[in-house]
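Late entry, written up from scratch paper. The run itself happened at the end of the previous shift, but nothing got recorded in the book at the time, so transcribing now.
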Amino acid sequence: IASLLCFFMLFITFDANVRDNLWEFGVLRALGVTAYQLVRIFFYEAMAMIISSIIHGTTIGVTIATVLTWQQNLFTEMPFELVFPGLLFALVITMSLGVATIGAYIPVREMLQCSISQVLKGM
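Output as recorded:
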């Protein structure tokens, strides 16, 4: 349930990000950028945000897990063993990339159906 809520929040975040950039969207359309190019621009922005979040989150998470595992093993006098949940990690990354793609595409598609003047006015 927590993962579902996180992915829903991720989708809402990307939707809000696209809607916050309405003015730039309208200006780009007025300058003659094609619909395919606009979708690609917002897709690349979403991927950049997700990939940087994955890198930072993984680095911070593995570092904290390693330190806490060392500390626990120090008190219990057990050998150091850090088990990384690779399958769960891959699943979460795959789902995040999918949600980012959908979250960037749906609002852009809705805005492409509006006229340039409507987009510049703020829909």
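The chain has five helices and no strands.
(Scratch paper discarded after transcription.)
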